[in-house]
Design goal:
The complex is a heterodimer. By secondary structure, chain A is α/β, with parallel strands linked by helices. Chain A has two domains: about 150 residues, Rossmann fold (3-Layer(aba) Sandwich); about 130 residues, Rossmann fold (3-Layer(aba) Sandwich). Chain A has eleven helices and ten strands. In chain A, helix 10 links the parallel strand 9 and strand 10. In chain A, helix 8 packs across helix 11. The radius of gyration of chain A is 19 Å and the shape is globular. Chain B has three domains: about 100 residues, no CATH class; about 80 residues; about 150 residues, Rossmann fold. In chain B, the strands form three sheets. Chain B has a four-stranded parallel beta sheet, with helices on both faces. In chain B, helix 6 packs parallel to helix 8 and helix 11 crosses helix 12. The longest helix of chain B is centred in the middle third of the chain and has 28 residues. The relative contact order of chain B is 0.11. The chains are: A alpha/beta, B alpha/beta. Chains A and B meet through helix 4 and helix 10 of A and helix 4 and helix 13 of B.
Chain lengths: ~290, ~350
Amino acid sequence: MKIGIPKALYYYYYFEKWRYFFDEFNIELVSFDTDREIIAKGNYYASSEMCLSLKIFLGHIAKLVDKCDYILIPKVDNYGLKDQMCANFSCLYDLVNNLFDVKILTYEIDYIHNLNELKGFIKLGKQLNLKIKDIKKAYHKACIKFNKKMKEKIMINTNKLDSCNKKILIVSHAYNIHDNYIGKIIKDNLTKFNCEIIYSDLFNNTSDLSFYLSNELYWKYSKQNIGAIVLCKEKIDGIIFLTTFPCGLDSLVNELVIRKIDKPYLNLVIDDLDAEAGIETRIESFVDILEQA
Amino acid sequence: MANYYIPAKYLFSNILNVDIMIAPFITSKTIELGSKYSPDFVCTPFKYTLGSMIEALDNGANILLQFGGGCRYGYYSELQEKILKDLGYKFELYNLINAGKADVKRIYKTIKKIDKKFNVFKGLYYLFIAINMVKYMDKIDDYIRQNIGFEVKKGSFDKLLKEMLEKFETVKNPFSLYVLYKKYFKKFKQIKINKPNNYLKVGVIGELYTLMEPFSNYYLEKELASFNIEIKRFTNVDYLLFNNKKVHKKALKNSKKYMKYKMGADASSNVYWTKYLCEHKYDGIIHIKSSFCTPEIGVMPIIDKIASDYDIPIIYFSFDANTSEIGIKTRLEAFYDMIEMRKKR
C-alpha cells in the first residue's frame, strides 16, 4: 500500500512524525519535490486569488492522484485558543475532496474541542484497519524519534548563531523556506554570498516570546516566527521576511513587526511568476548594505 | 455598517456616560485614506475600517472600539492601532474580542475602564433592548429585500424604513419597541407592490463585511432591485452574533456530501446556503467578497461544484479599493439577461 503525502503545507510540520509512524506498519510513503510542472498544475486547479503555497499544494495533489492508494490530508484547526492556524488549512480536505476523485485519509486536531494528536492518529489508523494497541505504541515511538530529530535540527540552527559570517534570519513559514522551489533560490543566493542562514521555525519555545512584539497574535506558526526575532535580535545582522503572495497572516503580522524592529530587513514577496534574476539582485543588494553597515 | 449603527449607538449612549460619535458615512474618500496607509495585500474591510477610524479621529473622537473574529479580522486592531499611532494620533483603541472569540470578561473590563460608574443590570437591560432591535430590523430588512424590486411607487420602502429607525432611537422599554415593530411591519405590508407570477429570485452570499456595507459592494442590492428581482440574503447581524453556531452545525449536517469539517469564518455557512438556494430553485446565485478574503477563496471551488451539480448559474464579484463601478454594473446586467433568458425557456 502507498500513501501519498503532498510536499507542501502540512508536510513541513508533520512529515517526520508520519514517516516514523507508518514505518512501524511497513507502509510506503510517496511524495515529490516541487518543480515548475507542479506549479503549473496547481495553477490550473486553484482559483486565481489563492496563495502560492496553496497552489503548490494543489499541484502536488494533482501529481499524486494516480500514483498512490490514499492521500493523507489532516485538518489541524488549533492547538488551543491562542495557537490557531491559517483559515486555508481548515478547508484543505474539503477542497481536495471536491476537486479530485481520490481516497483521502484524514484526522482532526482541535484542542479547544478536546481532539488531541493521539486521538487524531487513532482515527487515522482506524481508517487503515489497524489495531488501537498498535497505533498507540507506534505513535509514542514516532513521537520520541520525532522529538530527537527536532532537537538535532534545533541544535544545528542555534549553533549557527555563533558563526562569524554574516548571519541572516529568515522569517517565513516552514512550508515556504524549506520548499524546493520557493526557498531554494533564496538559500542558494545567500550561501553564494557567504551568509549564514538561520531559520525562524527551528527554535525552542519561541512562541511565548512573540508577546514582546505583538500581544494579540493568535496564530501558532506566526507566533513562532515572530518569537525567533525577539530571541536572536542581538546576534543577527539582518532579517529577510519571505512571503508568498497573498498570504493573509503575513500581510498583517509582518507589517506590524516591520514597524517595530530596528534591524535592517528585506521584505520578499514571491508570486509564481518566477524571476530568479530579480530575487538575486535584491538579495545581493541587501547583503551589500549589511556589509557596509 | 448599513443601519446597524442605530442599535449600537442606542446601547452605548444609554449605558455609558460618554459622548457617542457616529463615524461619518463611508465615501470614496474613506477608502482612499484607508488604502493609503494599509499594507499591500490586506483584505478590503481593513482599509475601510482604517479609513473611517482616521475620519473619526479627525472629527475629534478619542476612544475607538473594534471587534471581529473568525479569520484575520480578530487581529486587525493591533496593527490599526500601530498605524494610527505612527501617524501621530492620540487615542485609545479597545479590542473587545480575544483571539477571534468573544470574551465576556474582557468586554466587561473594557467598559469599566471607559466608564467607572457602569452598572451591570442597566447594561444588560439595554443590551436586551438593543438585541431585540437588531432582530426586528433584520426581519424587516428581509421583508424589504423580498419586495423592494416590485414597489409601485419608487422609494416608498426607503422612506418608511427611515421613519421607523427614527422612532426606534427613542424607545424606552422592550414592550414599546415590540409594539412599534408590529405597527411598522403592518405598514410595510400595506405598501403596494406589483409582483408578477413569474418573477426572478436571486440569492446573495459571501463575505460578511462586503455583504452588509452597501458602499463596499457599490449598492449591489439596489441595483438588483432595479431589475425587479427578489433578493435573499442570509448574513445579518442576528446571524453573526446569535445564530452562528447553530447554522454551522446545521451546515455540517446538511451538506455532508460537500463538506466534512468546519471552515474558517462564514465559509461553511456559505456552502450550506449555496445548497439551500440550489434546492429551493433560485434562478441565480451571486457570491461577493472583498479581494484576498482567505476563507472565501478556499471554498469558492466547492461552491462552484455545488452550483454546477444543481445547474444553477453563479457569478463571483471580488471588490477592492479601486474596483470600477461600471464594470460591475455591466457584469451584473449580463448576468441578469442570462438568468432571464433561462427563465423564459
